[in-house]
Every structure is written in structure tokens, then in C-alpha cells.
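Lab meeting notes turned into a lecture example. A postdoc, R.K., suggested we walk through two folding results consecutively so the class can see how the record format repeats. The first protein's sequence and C-alpha cells come next.
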Amino acid sequence: MRHKSIIPWLTAAKIFPPVHHASDEGLLCLGGDLSMERLLLAYRSGIFPWYSDDQPILWWSPDPRCVMIPQDIRICHSVRKSLRRGEFTLTKNQVFHEVIAHCRQVPRHGQDGTWITPEMEQAYIALHDAGYADSHEAWQNGVLVGGLYGVRIGSAFFGESMFSLVSNASKAAFAEMIHSLVEEKVTLCDCQVANDHTLALGAIEISRREYMQRLSLALGEDQ
């Protein structure tokens, strides 16, 4: 096992340690704030925040990294069938505030509470208002029943969270997101850490080194 030094605390300066200094679990540093400047720097640097209400802000850069290549994703048959039947009305950036609120509130199997703290919720709403965060929504009979949100910089999309109130709703919103990302020539969709759900949707794991290379290409002039 690699030896790692004590995890450092951030100062007021908007800088992060190099990502290869992260612990074996991917934890890079602690503290700081969720200002727009720091969040955008984090995503451009291959880092994301993930913590609970009773913790300081924790910043992560795991190895391996879970990603999707939008052009390679194939939507499953059941979701395609559901979309053909018109079970959902799909939109983008219509109710970002409601989507992130649902992601925070909807219970998740095997999880006690949520990592979307009130501070984090407001930070991502600010990113959305500034044009850096998108939501994709699924509706039935005028009611929001599923959706997801994430951060968009250059040709990279950083997925954050999704929710579903009825069967296939979040998958329908995901399908619309993939269609949108392909049309917009997004080349990298970050899923952070692999789980059964993201892997079932077509995510793959790559090394942090490869992720940073792909991220640099996706960001281009937006770094």
C-alpha cells in the first residue's frame, strides 16, 4: 500500500494539491469553501467535493475514476420502448432548483441521509444561474418524476446526482442527457466513483492518469 502523508487543510488561497497526492481512497484535502471560483477550479483539476453535514468539506480525486463516453452509450431496450410510448415529457434546465431539491430529499436504498448539504445545494444553484450547471427532467402529466444534474465545462460534463419517483423516470432523463451531450459534442462524462447503477448505464473505470488526460482534452481552452 502506498504511504500517504496527513491530508492537508486548504487555506483561503484558491489552490489545490496535485491530484496524485490523494490517499488510497481518493481523499485529497479538506476545508476551503464552495465558492464558484473554487468549485470550477476543482472540476477543471479533476477534483470534486463529497461530504456530509457533520464533516468539513472533503475534496476527492479517486483512482480509478468512473466515466462515460457519451458517444459510446447505448440506451437499454426498456427505456427506448418507454420513450417511444411517450411515457415521459423530457426537458432541460426547466426546474434546476426542483431537481437538486429532489436529489437531496428522495431516500436512497442503503444510504442514511444525503451528501447534498444545504450549502452544497446553494452552491450548485449558483453554478446553474451562472451557466455552469445543467438539469435534465422527466415529467408525467405535468408532474416532475425524475431528473439529474451536473456541471458542464467545455466538452466535459460532471454528473452529480439523479432521482426517480416512478419506474424508468431517471433513466429517461439520463437518455435525454446522453442525446444532448452527443449533439453538443461532449466527449467526457464524469461519474466520479463506480457503482452498480452507473456501470449498468454504461460507465467504465479508467485510471486517474487517463482521466486527467481525457479531461485536459475535453476542457481545451476552457481550462
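The second example is placed directly after the first for contrast:
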Amino acid sequence: MTGIVSRLILAVVTIASVPAIWMLLLFLQWETRWTRDQDLAIALANLVTALLLIGAWVLIWRREIRWSPRRSALTIVATVGSLMLAGGFGFWIGEATRESEAGHIFGGIVWALLWLAATAVIWRETASERIERMQRLGVHGVTCPTCGYNLTGMKEARCPECGATFTLEQLFASVAESSV
């Protein structure tokens, strides 16, 4: 199993386990009667679950991300921004339903969705990062087998220079031949 496949499986398991962890925390709180305030119990379950999600997500993807100061700052901004948006949404739901617990629950769900979506965008590999990664692997670009035009970054297997079209297998074979 490749590293990326195992990271994807871990990511799916992490996302799927978040609701179970949240419910377990609430169950433990209600069983131990640490607090009788349901709002506080749900808020604490949200906080602990969020911290676990952030920690797991960063651990899973940390080696795949090129952590520039800009990307780190954007991640922090996304965390704070998603908390503010989700908090506002949760407050609105709580007021609309007259159930503050519903606001906390929906706010926690919205926060997780917003934060995960934001990290997917912020942590995405840029074109220049992909080219650098490919060069480190010894692949200096995919070139047209017919005319030699550099096809790196193209969205289709057709050469804009000579118009020739190829299957992915043909392009991979030409890359393998050129690296020998």
C-alpha cells in the first residue's frame, strides 16, 4: 500500500470517527455528571473533538504539505474564520429553534465541515510545488512523444504544439523511455 493510499484511508477513518468521539465524550460527561449544564457539556465535547480532529488531520497530512509561512498563516486564519462562521450559524440555529443545544451541535458540525474544506484548498499542492516534486523524483516533465513539447500541467493528453493525441499509457511510456 502506498503512503498516499494509507493517508487517504486514515483521513476517511478520522472523519468517520469524529461523531462517535463526540457522542462518547457527551456520554461520559452525562454518566459522570461532571456538569449539569448541557450547553457547557456540548461546548466542551465540541472543543475536545475539534482539537482531536485538528491534531489527527495535521499528523496525517503533515509530510504531504509544504509548510510555508503563508500556508501556516492561512491555516490559522481558516481555523479562526470557520469558528466564527460556525459560531454565528450555531447561534442563529439556537435562536431559531429556541434550543441552545441544537445551536452548539450544528455549530460544531458546520465548523468541522468548513475547516476540512478550507484545509483541502489551502494545503493543495501548487503547480510549482508539483513540478519541484516531480524533478526530485527524476521526472523533468512529460513531453510530447511526437514533437518534444513540454506537456507538464496540461489538462488533456493532446499536444497544443503539434495536435497529436495520446493515451496516458503512451505518455507514461515516453516518460519512462526518456528517463532511461
